[in-house]
Amino acid sequence: MAFNHLPAGVHDALAPLSVMPVTHSVPMAKNLRPDRSPTDSAPRPSPGALLDRLAAGPSRASRVTHTEHLPPRAGRHAVWPDRIRAEVVAAVQAAGIDHPWAHQARAAEHALDGESVVVATGTASGKSLAYLTPVLSALLDGSEAPNGRGATALYLAPTKALAADQCRAVKELSQPLGHSVRAAVHDGDTPFEEREWIRQYANYVLTNPDMLHRSVLPSHARWSSFLKSLKYVVVDECHTYRGVFGSHVAQVLRRLRRLCARYGASPVFLLASATAAEPAVAARRLTGLPVVEVADDASPRGELVFALWEPPLTELHGEKGAPVRRTATAEAADLLTDLTVQGVRSVVFVRSRRGAELISVIAQERLAEVDRSLARRVAAYRGGYLPEERRALEGALHSGELLGLAATNALELGVDVSGLDAVVIAGYPGTRASLWQQAGRAGRSGQGALAVMVARDDPLDTFLVHHPEALFDRPVESTVLDPDNPYVLAPHLCAAAEELPLTDEDLGLFGPAAAELLPQLEAAKLLRRRTRAWHWTRRERAADLTDIRGEGGRPVQVVEDGTGRLLGTVDAGAAHTTVHEGAVHLHQGRTYLVRSLDLEDSVALVEQAAPAYTTVARDTTSVSVLETDTEIPWGDGRLCYGSVEVTNQVVSFLRRRVITGEVLGETKLDLPPRTLRTRAVWWTVTEDQLDRARINPEILGGALHAAEHASIGMLPLFATCDRWDIGGVSVPLHPDTLLPTVFVYDGHPGGAGFAERAFRTAGDWLTATRQAIASCECEAGCPSCIQSPKCGNGNEPLHKRGAVRLLAVLLEGAPTKESETEADGTDPTDRTDPTGRTGDRAAETGQG
């Protein structure tokens, strides 16, 4: 496959490099061995020198818009609590760790005291050891019971890869303890013949929330001996449990606690999180238990140089003649190529599975031009691979066979890759917490590291590379989740009733909304009240009522036409936009075209091809207001929050050149519409406000549309969401409000908390939106400010200057926080939800 890179001389840094074949093996560092020196002794350039090499040449130097230097930090040691078994301390010392960091010892102390605790410290700060020492000590005590399993522990990870990696680490660490610790992974890849042994004999089971929901809890009687001895539940990477997925996991954990109580156990929860705002509050929301916070990171850190990188404008023009920047994908692929040629261990994090495949293919092609052996040292890692492919990649990563990787966040939360020399982040990952999690993968103990964030051509990324204070001077976000969402809670009440009949005493565990939902579930003939308890009435499994990742429906299988070979899967919710007829699908560096999508059988047939383009789906959306929960005057206009019904339909797709992003054409699609009941924030303006903003009827639609696009692009800065988690609609005259209206809604049934966060931060959010549009250099709008890649109306109409004036007039009427409190008589951070839920969620969900 050929790729049209920048002309010779404009590309970059390959010329000044000394091109030498890389023949040495570079194994990844182990988290449990923070003092381990790298096996490859080749001297590494300092992070600053490495950045200088990448930015060499006049064309590249101008791409670095900001460089942040984070100084090194010395570590602070402590001693293990004396209640940790001496054998466990000896095993830790045998692994090369003489003394714990202060936060590790403090977390272990809380665990031993029977207090649930969340450790919220930086990447590679030894969080695993903080929870493993009390867990291993308890398992060692339990091994002395007559049945050899007097204590058990359950480990939950958001990905299979992370559970597998942690299992390897536990087995390595506990080797001196012999058979006292019997760790095993129980997930969808575990052979059935091994599962019975795990249920009967394993005392440390590593799994994921999906398996807990679908397998362990529904068949709890078979796990009774494990559950009645359950001492600890470890929830790793708990900051990832946000939005709809986090809300589902919160209810799964409540079901687990209920069954444990049935068997006489009351496990302590040990949570590990990336640095986050109010981690104890989020952990309490997730588990339903009081949680102690340990957030003072005492581990050492080398120097980190963090660069913000903006790709250059090309000579090409996009829709409506808008200027087009070089894609973040192409730019990141070039950086990965340069780093690999220098023998620098690196990973590129990219938002999409397709992006990971593209970056890998481009880098491999460029490396083959330098040295064919180098092309084999780069690969892609993403979700959707078959289990054997995933395990092979993880093995190559640990062995050092791979030197560079293009990965989705399946790796961010997957295998242990701490100790890299450089991390490239292709596009803002959606939250500051995730940004620092990815950047933290770079750096060995005591050595410096480089992180580079490459901006995509969209409003938020463009804003961030020119406003670095929004990244480096603000705290990370709080976690947004809403376990009381009725769309989330209802199926878990059914699942709980099937596990054990629900009593009135159980309802407090599931939150105040549970009692309101039970009569509705009875009316739907899902539950029936008999004497003092609610019972599941159906033959099918209640756990199958919901997909806890909020994806809805079974995954679509991607099958190669002609051979029938299964290439992988795509989430049901993404099928319309990613594997529609004519879509380009990438798998393991190979390109396929989708011949057909069968929604009834959930199968997409593909054939191998080599198109010189990628595809982007477009959709159209309409919104109707079901109920307005809260309404605040903004001058003559209104800011509202409530329930809406959204009708969405994918109508076409664009073909874009791989490297440049140039639009080659648009093809219509015939896919069915989908409806969604969710939560939304919306604002209206009056004729007087339009007059003050000099918005006449001819440009009204374009001004509203432009403001809608930009506000969607900017919301991830204020809520822990992805741009693709939310949607929007703008209407010059909406039938429900009878005014010009802009809606922004959650893309999940029942809402995910993002629109509520937008409502509560609307002043700051829309101010940043206006600033992002006004500061863009383009004349009439471009992808960096008001154009959207998924706009079903072909980015028509748009009016950049009208949007700036409209937002300015709207913001003139924005209330102060004090007047906002007076408007409805309550503190906006302590407001009661109109469904009857208590209002402390708002205080938990973010910074002002």
TrEMBL record:
<dbReference type="InterPro" id="IPR027417">
    <property type="entry name" value="P-loop_NTPase"/>
</dbReference>
<feature type="domain" description="Helicase C-terminal">
    <location>
        <begin position="335"/>
        <end position="487"/>
    </location>
</feature>
<keyword id="KW-0067">ATP-binding</keyword>
<dbReference type="Pfam" id="PF00270">
    <property type="entry name" value="DEAD"/>
</dbReference>
<dbReference type="InterPro" id="IPR011545">
    <property type="entry name" value="DEAD/DEAH_box_helicase_dom"/>
</dbReference>
<feature type="compositionally biased region" description="Basic and acidic residues">
    <location>
        <begin position="828"/>
        <end position="848"/>
    </location>
</feature>
<dbReference type="Pfam" id="PF22982">
    <property type="entry name" value="WHD_HRQ1"/>
</dbReference>
<dbReference type="InterPro" id="IPR022307">
    <property type="entry name" value="Helicase_put_actinobac"/>
</dbReference>
<feature type="region of interest" description="Disordered">
    <location>
        <begin position="813"/>
        <end position="848"/>
    </location>
</feature>
<feature type="region of interest" description="Disordered">
    <location>
        <begin position="56"/>
        <end position="75"/>
    </location>
</feature>
<dbReference type="Pfam" id="PF09369">
    <property type="entry name" value="MZB"/>
</dbReference>
<feature type="domain" description="Helicase ATP-binding">
    <location>
        <begin position="108"/>
        <end position="294"/>
    </location>
</feature>
<feature type="region of interest" description="Disordered">
    <location>
        <begin position="29"/>
        <end position="49"/>
    </location>
</feature>
<dbReference type="InterPro" id="IPR014001">
    <property type="entry name" value="Helicase_ATP-bd"/>
</dbReference>
<keyword id="KW-0347">Helicase</keyword>
<keyword id="KW-0378">Hydrolase</keyword>
<dbReference type="Pfam" id="PF00271">
    <property type="entry name" value="Helicase_C"/>
</dbReference>
<dbReference type="GO" id="GO:0004386">
    <property type="term" value="F:helicase activity"/>
</dbReference>
<dbReference type="InterPro" id="IPR018973">
    <property type="entry name" value="MZB"/>
</dbReference>
<dbReference type="InterPro" id="IPR001650">
    <property type="entry name" value="Helicase_C-like"/>
</dbReference>
<dbReference type="InterPro" id="IPR055227">
    <property type="entry name" value="HRQ1_WHD"/>
</dbReference>
<keyword id="KW-0547">Nucleotide-binding</keyword>
<protein>
    <submittedName>
        <fullName>DEAD/DEAH box helicase</fullName>
    </submittedName>
</protein>
